[in-house]
Structure formats: C-alpha cells, structure tokens
Amino acid sequence: MIAVDWGTTAFRAVLLDAAGAPRDRVEGPWGILTVPEGGFPAALRERIGPWLAAGQRRVWMCGMVGSRQGWIEAPYLPVPASVAQLARAAMGVPFDGAEIRLVPGMMVPGQRPDVMRGEETKVAGLLGTLPAAATLCLPGTHSKWVRIADGRILHFESHMTGEVFGALRGHTILARTMPAAPHDPDAFARGVRRAREPGGLLHHVFGARALGLTGQLPDASAASYLSGLLIGHEIAAALADAAPPVHLAGGATLVPLYAAALVALDVPHVVHDVDAATEGLRAMAQSWT
Amino acid sequence: MIAVDWGTTAFRAVLLDAAGAPRDRVEGPWGILTVPEGGFPAALRERIGPWLAAGQRRVWMCGMVGSRQGWIEAPYLPVPASVAQLARAAMGVPFDGAEIRLVPGMMVPGQRPDVMRGEETKVAGLLGTLPAAATLCLPGTHSKWVRIADGRILHFESHMTGEVFGALRGHTILARTMPAAPHDPDAFARGVRRAREPGGLLHHVFGARALGLTGQLPDASAASYLSGLLIGHEIAAALADAAPPVHLAGGATLVPLYAAALVALDVPHVVHDVDAATEGLRAMAQSWT
C-alpha cells in the first residue's frame, strides 16, 4: 500500500510492502496550498506515478488534503472513536488508477468544539505502543492533547501555542528586542517555571519585556524565555484535565522542547520516535481489509 | 501651569489657571515617534509656544517623553510611592523659556519586575476620588491593574491584552475569518464567560476557530468573541490578586468594554470619567510648591 500524509505545507508518501515495512518514500514542500484548484489528481500522479505504474493500487491519505481547501472534504468524525471506526469513516476518492481512501479529521462536538485533521492518524499509529489509558501530546503550530482509553480516542484539546509564539515574537513590542539567536535552555526553563506562578499569560508575556528593561533577561535569550512561557502555560492548562505521564510524539524540533519543559515542571514523560502517520494509515488499511 | 501628556503616538497639553481649571488645550498625533533626535525642545515650542509667550513658566510632563526613546530618560521610581514622592522624583529638564518637570515612570522591583510610564500620573490624578484602599484598572494596549492603599501606589501589574489581540487578530489563522465588523456584545460576553472556564488561554483561542468551523460563531462576531476572551482572561488573572470593586478609568473605547466584561463576570465596578493625566500633573505640581 501507499501511505500519504498531505498537509498544508508538506507532502509525504511512503510505499509499504505486504508486511508493512517501508520500501520507498517521497517527500517535499508540496503542501495543498501549492495545488491549483482541481489539480489534486495530477499532483498525486506526479509524486507517486512510478509506484502506481508498478502496480500499487491501495492508497490511504490523511491530513489537510481532506479539508475544505483540499481535494475533497472528509467530514469530521466525532469523539470517542476507535481506529476501526476511523478506518470505516474513510472516504473513497474517485481516481483513475488506484483505490484511494481519505481519513476524516476528528471533532469534539458540543458547545466547546475542537477539531483536528491529520493528528487523528498519528494517534492511531501510536495506539499500539501506548498503555490502555494514556495522555498523548502532539506538539505543533496547534498542539493536540489527546486522552486515550481502551484503544479509543476519548477526547482532545488544541492549543494555539506555536502560532501565538510566532504572532507575539513577530508582531508585538517584544519583536524589537528579540534578535535571532541560539536556543537558551536556561531562559526557556525559567519561562516554563514562570508559567506555573499566578498572574496569567497576558501578564507573564509583558513580564518578558519588563525583565529585559530591568537588565534581567538578555535580548538574545528573550525568544527562548517566551517560548518556555507559552509551552509552560499550555502544559499547565492541559494537565489540569489529564494525568501524567505525558506521551510525546512529533517533530524533531518541538518534541525536545516539550520534553525539557516537562522536566522543568517535574512531570514524567515518554518520547515516542516513530513514523506515526504512516503507521496509522497502515493500521487503518489493515482494519479495513 | 501647563500639563503635558506626551506618549508614543499622541501629544496632549492643557493650560490650567491658578485654581487648577483648564483654560485651553492642544492635542494631536504628535507622539514621540514623530520627533527627530534632538528635536524635543523645538517640538514642544511648536505646540505650546503661544502659552509660553504669554508668560506661562511651569510645565509638567508625563509619558513616554521620559523614556529612553524620548527627550530625557527619567528613571523608574519603585513602588510603593505616594504622589508627593512621585513629584519629588520628577526630573528638571533644561529648556530655555520655562521650568520643565518630567514625571518618572514607576517599577515593581525584584525578580518579577513590571514597569509603567504615564499611567503613574493618571493614578495620581485619580487618588483623590478613590477610597483609601482600591483596585484600579487602566485598560490599554498594555493594561495596568494598580493596588492603592492610604494614598500610595502599592503594587501594579501589566497585561499585554490589547497588543496580543492585535497580533492574534492580524497574524494568525484567525485573521482569515475575522472581517471588519461592528462590535457584537453577545459574542463579546460569551468570550468573557468562556475565559472563566478551564482549558487555558491558548486552548480557548483555538476554540474561536473551532466555533467558526462548526457553525457556532459567525465570522462577523469572531473578533468580538476573541476580544471578550482576552479581556476575560486578563480580569480573571488580575482579580486572583486584587479585591473588587474595580475602579475603571481610561479611553472611551476600552472602558465600556471592560465595564461590560465585569458585568458579564458579576464583578462590581465604578467608572471614573476624569482627565486623570492632567489632574495628576496638577496634583504633583501642587505637592511640589
């Protein structure tokens, strides 16, 4: 089979053999934003044409390719749901040359809604290595905290941490005193610990400036401090509603930061280093057959 | 005397008679950012030259004109401090044609520092109408919450609420679905009440998007909701450390919003509609003589 994780800014496909082992891969900055309207079939053929020509017929896809801005909109599946339910909810996509299944995103229904698209597949890929009940954190532009029980996704919560960091760093008075600089682990941990104190995020963020003005935080360390402050607030809020240890999975940049923040907060954690999206698509394809 | 409130983006001067009553005023978008280096004496003469020519000699100034980017840097005075102490700490500024006194900003010293510049004078101007012990809120780009006791400024706390709103509204995914639209008081109050619930600000902010995606928040109401969310978080955090009623003073745009937020939270408040900066400068000049 072919497992495709097609997001807003990146495309990633893995060719798996019958035993589920990776045989080949293709990836690049060919996110859905680069695809012209109606251009998805051609874009997919351009990337994985040789595999299709070699006789591969089963393609599973996840990510923003299933959003309103993508190929076809695959409606959100509400929590709670199992991997088998996610697989059954996958949409067939008309395509000449293969049988494509598109995994839906998931939603928390009700008056306090939440949504994810792409992360549900990563969670599905991690379920096999998680304990029966677990708290999972997928750091990102919009981090996801997911509660797992008995092989099902029970609930999840998004935090706009990465995007808020970018907006504050680039578009507030803080921008003036935050040069590009190497990560400062001590300033980061200081920010994380500050998040645990009273005062609230909006006050703490102003504090980054006051620390600079009073000579207690060098400009070169200010971005690390702000990053720690925001990640610390995210973790504190998420753990009010979920039990440690925190199972971490995701990119090579953010996972170490979140791990360091959890250490600074004395919260036990486990890092999972797997290709979760591919494994999730494989698990769904297997459940389907 | 002449009372001058010279901020980052605005200039405002009031001519007061011997009894402290306003006789004339000059104001405009001539903030310190519009003044070239070394140009402050000329800029001041351009604005209030006629009053000086008519024999006025006493000028009191407050605001960012006393910052590193202003005319002369007037070092921050630490809390706690009285109006008389603020007045005594005012710096003499060399100027041909008048005796200028520049009010310093104030700071909270220590490892959790805070700073304000300009607002200390507004607080001084409000002290006469506040009870002996009071919680004062000056909404703004960087809102200030000030604790007053026995005629002194005991402590204060800044919240970057206004600026965070601008950054989120303009530079995150929320921007795509927040058209310019009239204020929606119901959506605003909904945001305020959401702030009281668990989850944290970073999660609640993502919720604004999820509410839109699930059809529960019209795009035209999204900015009002976000504004309520942020102001609600500010108020909740500030009141963890200060007692109501909240005394509100400031601009005609933000004070009604904060008043509405306090109503939505069932927190008693009092609105003060006075020219606090001018009154503060007058009180300091009087304490000086």
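Chain A touches chain B through 48 residues (CB under 8 Å).
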